[in-house]
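Input structure tokens:
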């Protein structure tokens, strides 16, 4: 059934024509999802803003669905921890977010 399928998947995205489907039955256009990512990219630390805002503007539409899912999970991590992981390299990133952190590290090394 659809509800059991919904329970098995957490925050995965499926492209359905020009739309993405969330398991909780919310359908967002790609531009709505991009706007949501741009909003979430604005952080409390200016150093993170300088990484995430350009990353979302330049790379978001190139990300695979699994990476988009991971990006929104990453945005739930507090700013101090993100700075320790990305900028100061004091912490390891969560292994389940490996794909998106590698994309961000690659992007960060280019800017």
């Amino acid at each position: 059934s659809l509800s059991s399928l919904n329970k098995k998947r957490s925050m995965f995205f499926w492209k359905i024509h020009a739309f993405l489907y969330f398991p909780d039955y919310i359908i967002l256009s790609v531009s709505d999802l991009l706007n949501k990512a741009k909003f979430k990219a604005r952080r409390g630390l200016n150093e993170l803003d300088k990484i995430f805002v350009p990353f979302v503007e330049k790379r978001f539409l190139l990300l695979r669905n699994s990476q988009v899912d991971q990006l929104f999970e990453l945005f739930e991590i507090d700013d101090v921890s993100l700075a320790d992981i990305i900028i100061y390299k004091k912490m390891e990133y969560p292994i389940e977010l490996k794909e998106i952190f590698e994309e961000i590290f690659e992007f960060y090394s280019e800017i």
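The helical segments are 2-8, 30-41, 46-59, 65-74, 79-86, 98-110. Confidence is low (pLDDT under 50) at residues 1-19.
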